[in-house]
Amino acid sequence: MDIQQLRNFLVLCDSLNFRIAAGQINIVQPALSRQIQLLEHEIGALLFDRSKRTVTLTEAGVYFRKEADRILQDLNKTITRTAQLHNGEAGEVRITHASSAMNTVVPAFLVKVKQKWPHLKTIAQETSNFQQIEMLLARQTDIGVAPNIMLPPEVNSKVLYRENFVLILPGNHPLAKIKLSDLSVLKNETFILPQVSTGAGYVEAILQIFQGFGFKPKVAHESAHSIGVLRLVEAGLGISIEPISSVLGTNMNIQLIELKNLPQKAVMTLFWLKEREEELRRFIEMF
Fold it and tell me: What whole-number distance in Å separates Cα of residue 144 and Cα of residue 269?
C-alpha cells in the first residue's frame, strides 16, 4: 500500500459512495474500486460491506479508518517538522557562555532567535572556557561565547567586543578610597580567580596584567563563575578582577575600580566548529 491509497480510502470512508469518492479524488470509479480491493487483499480483511444500494464500514474498516487517519496526521506533522528543521524554524540551538556574556550579548541573541523562529528551542549553559571547548569538540553544543579564550585549530571565531577589566574589592577595603594607578600595591593581597586549567586563555590574560607590575597574585580561592567570585569578595575573602560586564547590575557591598589604562582587555569571542560554519551561519550572523 502507499500513502495515496490511504488517502483515497479515507475519502471513501467519508462519502461511503464509490462514485462520489472517485469524483472527489479525480479518478474513474473502477480504478478506485480496484485500489480498495488491493488494499483489502494486502491487509487480509474486508473493510467495506458492499451491496447494490449501500456501502458501510466493517468493524475492521472502522478500526483501520481510525488508524489510517492517525498515520496520515503523524506523517503530515513529520513533513512539516522536517521542513521547519531544514529552514531553522524548529529543533534546537545550544550555546555555552561565560558569566559576563549573559550580561551582554547572550540575552539579545536568544530574543532574536525566539522572534525569528518561535518553535526553535534555545539552550544556554554557563560554563568555563575549557568546558566550552570540550563540549564544542564533542558536539554537545553548537556555539560558544567566552572572553580571551584559546581555541584549537578546528574552531573558527570572531571578536564580538573588547572591554576593560575591573578590580573588585570588598566594600570596606582601604584601597577603594585611593586613586589606584600602580597595581603593584596588590602584591600582598589574596585573590579569587578561576583555575588556570579551566580558564583556557582567560586566566592567562589576567596573570599577564600582574606580571606587568612585577608580581604573581596569591590565589586563596578559585571560582569559574562571576557570581561566586563576587560573593566571595563581598565576604572579605579576597579581591578579584573581572570584565566590567560581569558586574553590571550588581547590588553588593563591593567596590569597583575600572582599569582603563591597561593594554590588556577582555576580548569577548564567539566561536564554532569550522566544519559546521555553513550550517550555523544564520545564528553566527545574529551576533
Answer: 8
pTM for the model stands at: 0.69
Domain locations in the chain as residue ranges? 3-86, 98-287
Q: Which three cell numbers mark 203? A: 586566566
Per-residue pLDDT 10s for the chain (287 aa) are 889 999 999 999 999 999 999 999 999 999 999 999 999 999 999 999 988 788 999 999 999 999 999 999 889 888 877 877 777 666 789 999 998 999 999 999 999 999 998 888 899 999 989 999 999 999 999 999 999 999 999 999 999 999 999 999 999 998 877 778 889 999 999 999 988 777 668 888 999 999 999 999 999 898 878 888 999 999 999 999 999 999 988 889 999 999 998 999 999 999 999 999 998 999 999 99
98-287 CATH: 3.40.190.290
Q: How many residues does the chain have?
A: 287
The sheet with strand 143-147 has its strands ordered as 121-126, 92-97, 143-147, 266-273, 155-163
Identify whether the C-beta of residue 271 lies closer than 8 Å to the C-beta of residue 151. yes
3-86 and 98-287: identical CATH topology:
no
Measured between alpha carbons, how far is 5 from 176 in angstroms, rounded to an integer? 80
> Which residues are paired to 93 by β-bridges?
122
CA 175 vs. chain centroid, Å, equals 41
